[in-house]
Sequence to fold (82 residues):
Amino acid sequence: MSGDGEKMEYIIEFQQHGASVKVSAIDAATLTEVSLVGPSTARREDLQRAALQKLLFVLGKNGAAKEKAAPSEAKKKPGIIV
Fold:
C-alpha cells in the first residue's frame, strides 16, 4: 500500500454486461484483484472509487492476516534461531 510514501499502482477494468458493469481493480505489486458489479447508469468515477476502496480494504485485511500468522508460524518451527 502507500504507507511507505510510495505511489500505489493499480489497474482498473470495466466490462459491460447488459444493464450492469463489472469493475475489477488489481494491485500491480501484489496482484490482488477485487471486483464489483454496479448499474451501467452509474458514473465511471463512482464505480472506480468503490473498486479502489474495496481493493484497499482487502489489501489491509490481507496485511493484517499475514502479521498475525507470522508469529504463530515461528513457534511451530523446530530448531534454534540464531
